[in-house]
Specification:
It comes from Acinetobacter modestus. InterPro entries: D-isomer_2-hydroxyacid_DH, D-isomer_2_OHA_DH_cat_dom, D-isomer_DH_CS1, D-isomer_DH_NAD-bd, NAD(P)-bd_dom_sf. The chain is an alpha/beta fold and 321 residues long. The longest helix is centred in the C-terminal third of the chain and has 19 residues, at 289-307. The strands form two sheets. Strands 8-7-6-9-10-11-12 form a seven-stranded parallel β-sheet, sandwiched between helices. A five-stranded parallel β-sheet has the order 2-1-3-4-5, with helices on both faces. The chain contains twelve helices and twelve strands. α8 (180-185) links the parallel β7 and β8 (189-190). The protein binds NADP nicotinamide-adenine-dinucleotide phosphate. The site of NADP nicotinamide-adenine-dinucleotide phosphate (NAP) has 33 residues, from α5 and α7.
């Protein structure tokens, strides 16, 4: 019987389905160091499924016959793809099914930061609403403003659609390659990064994390933004220099930030917690019941396809290159 290692919590129905057909080992952080468990269990494993763990030579080296790692995510920066290529291990991911939900969250952050929603929610509950609100509680308009999207991929395009049709926004975008057809649908104008930062009222980062997007936004980039700009990051924490962001927020170089992702997660004891103009969410871009079920189902299908000697639909490294 083929062996499957489950390296994070997954949906119970999918787990039960796996257990019907395969020998399944579920790793459990309560039973000791997770990397030690991976090194032990991967030796004779055929497949792995899960999310949120760094998998690379340090824990995968003992693998003898691992055919596929099926990640329950679209982002795959936790995996050392060049090492997987060397070992001829497929990496499958779950694009598309989380696009709309993650775009919804980007807009949740954008609106929350613009209208100071978490601050005013706490303020109201603390009984501070004693007379009509004053300028300190005022937010900024969203409708009709300029939205700059960095990374016009699947999620970036879904964010653009919301801005264009829902909020009559003027859409700018930056991408390594121009996306002429996608951009046409939202009348989105291409800008180089500096121009986008200078001209946008709202800036949303939706790139994948790669060598070029690592630390793409730092002090120099925050200096280019408008004083009233709202900055949103739903991509990956490492795309942004978090210290520079904190300084920009502290010094009111920008109006506010809406964040779902951080350099180090889970976020603990951060200076961001002290800043009323930072909206901080715990990496929940795709975290709705329906979307997570779709993601794990797709990850399951990718895994089963590989174990049945078929090519999964969504491979990051189909040809190991
Ligand atoms: P995608 O379709 O691959 O889009 C990524 C876009 O970023 C592409 O258009 C890519 O185009 C562009 N890009 C990459 N590097 C760039 C750079 N240095 N400068 C400018 N543009 C760059 O992926 P997606 O499905 O939209 O997902 C995007 C990312 O969002 C994922 O990789 C993941 O990290 C993150 N995400 C987060 C959550 C969450 O829970 N917060 C949920 C889902 C996804 P070019 O390569 O042509 O430049």
């Amino acid at each position: 019987m083929k062996k499957v290692v489950v390296f994070s919590q997954i949906d119970q129905d999918v787990l039960a389905q796996l257990q019907q057909d395969y020998r399944v080992v579920v790793l459990n952080p309560k039973l000791g160091d997770i990397n030690d468990q991976i090194r032990t269990e991967v030796v004779d494993a055929d497949a792995m499924i899960g999310a949120g763990r760094l998998l690379n030579e340090s824990n995968l080296a003992p693998a003898q016959k691992l055919k596929i790692i099926s990640t329950v995510s679209v982002g795959y920066d936790n995996y050392d793809v060049s090492y997987l290529n060397q070992k001829k291990i497929w990496l499958a991911n779950t694009p598309h099914v989380l696009t709309e939900t993650t775009a919804d969250l980007a807009f949740t952050l954008l609106l929350s930061a613009a209208r100071k929603v978490p601050y005013l929610d706490a303020w109201t509950k603390q009984g501070q609403w004693k007379r009509t609100v004053s300028t300190e509680q005022f937010g900024m308009d969203v409708f009709g403003k300029t939205l700059g999207i960095i990374g016009l991929g699947n999620i970036g395009a879904a964010i653009a659609r919301r801005g264009f049709y829902g909020f009559n926004m003027n859409i700018l975008y930056h991408n390594r390659r121009e996306k002429i057809e996608v951009a046409q649908a939202f009348n989105a104008q291409y800008r180089d990064l500096d121009q986008l930062l200078q001209q946008s009222d709202f800036i949303v980062v939706a790139v994948d994390l790669n060598h070029e997007s690592q630390a793409l936004i730092g002090a120099e980039q925050f200096d280019l933004m408008q004083k009233h700009a709202v900055f949103v990051n739903i991509a990956r924490g490492s795309v942004v220099d978090e210290d520079a962001l904190i300084e920009a927020l502290k010094q009111n170089k920008i109006f506010a930030a809406g964040l779902d992702v951080y350099a180090k997660e889970p976020l603990q004891n951060s200076a961001l917690f002290e800043l009323p103009n930072a909206v901080t969410l715990p990496h929940i871009g795709s975290a709705t019941t329906e979307t997570r079920q779709k993601m794990v189902k797709l990850a399951y299908q990718n895994l089963v396809a590989a174990l049945q000697d078929r090519t999964p639909h969504y491979l990051v490294n189909p040809k190991f290159e």
